[in-house]
Amino acid sequence: MMSHEITGLAGKNKSRTRRGRGRGSGLGKTAGRGSNGQNSRAGSKPPITSEGGQMPLFRRLPKRGFNNANFTTRYAIVNLVQLANFAEDARIDPQALKNAGLIDSVKEKVKILGDGEINRRLTIVAHKFSRSALQKITSAGGTTEAPQLTGSGHAGTTKS
Asked: Which of 12, 21, 32, 127 is the most exposed place for a label (fewest CB within 10 A)?
């Protein structure tokens, strides 16, 4: 066979290597896995974090503080300047904030911050208020309410 007679089909279907089938196969005895150890065993694979005998990276790095992220309460933040588009004497609750596109879900807890000015009387229902927000809302003649969570999962409201 000459080099110009080789077609694209030559070498296309290469037979798979049959490991552990005697010395004549080239991969007899240990079948290319080395002598002993975890990786030579069938069905065994070390964890992805395993670094052999070396001290693992997460144990080498310094640790600082304590992160209790599972129990933190996250609030959707709304500033007073974002409430400027609501009408006089409007009742602003989580549903109204969601309809206005200021929060993502009604199930989120809402905190009102005092960034910006408010010049109209509003009734605002939120889980938390900053001191400056409370001061600005009451000075404009508005009222604040905090939803009261009951044991049955239904939310009522209480004035604060």
From this structure: 12
Summarize pLDDT for 50-69 with one digit per residue, the tens: 888 899 998 999 999 888 88
Q: Is 159 part of a structural domain of the chain?
A: no
- Rounded to an integer, what distance in angstroms lies between the CA atom of residue 119 and that of residue 142? 9
Q: Tokens 């896995």, residue?
A: 33
DSSP H helical ranges for 33-158: 57-60, 94-99, 131-139
- Domain harbouring 93, CATH code: 3.100.10.10
**Cα separation of 129 and 114, whole Å?**
8
50 token code pair:
């395993």
**36-51 burial, b for 16+ CB within 10 Å, e for fewer?**
eeeeeeeeeeeeeeee
Beta bridge partners of 79: 113
Q: Which domain holds residue 78?
A: 74-147
Q: How many domains does the chain have?
A: 1
pTM (whole model) above 0.70: no
Q: Which residue has the tokens 């005697």?
A: 22
Domain assignment of residue 55, yes or no: no
Give the integer Cα–Cα distance in Å for 8 and 28: 32
How does pLDDT run across 126-143, given as a tens digit for each residue? Answer: 999 999 999 999 999 999
